[in-house]
Amino acid sequence: LQWSSPPEAIKRFKSQEIWFPPPQFYELCRLCNFSSLQELHKFSSDRALEGCERWMPVTLTASDGFVQLLPGDELYPEDPDYTGEKKITMSTDKKVDDLMKEGSVFHRIVIKNKSLAVYVNIVAKYKHINPLMINSDCSDYSSKL
Predict the structure, then answer these.
(1) Which residue range forms the structural domain that includes residue 108?
(2) Domain count of the chain?
(3) What predicted TM-score, i.e. pTM, was given to this entire model?
């Protein structure tokens, strides 16, 4: 077990030393907004009574990868399958890059060729903070940590 800051953990993920499922990668990208534990604590204390939102990622299978859609994304279904009883599957013959070029309102995690990328351009609800948009297969992102 090794302690890592969020940017360090993402760096280790990029070098394939460790692996994170998409939700944990998303949260690490969100934590990269804070330069210290004290800053994170202040943020969480300040927004604690604002509320929260239940999320259910919906996976869209593309011809060359996957897109995990989150609430607010233009492709997110109006009535997601929270229980798994509806067995809804979303798929397209389009490539991930084409979906990204065609879209304009993003809240998604793109999974392609063993890499993850977070794309968010919506306003977060309840005074929350969006993750930094980080692509795990390139190094041209800026972290505050």
Answers:
(1) 6-120
(2) 1
(3) 0.84
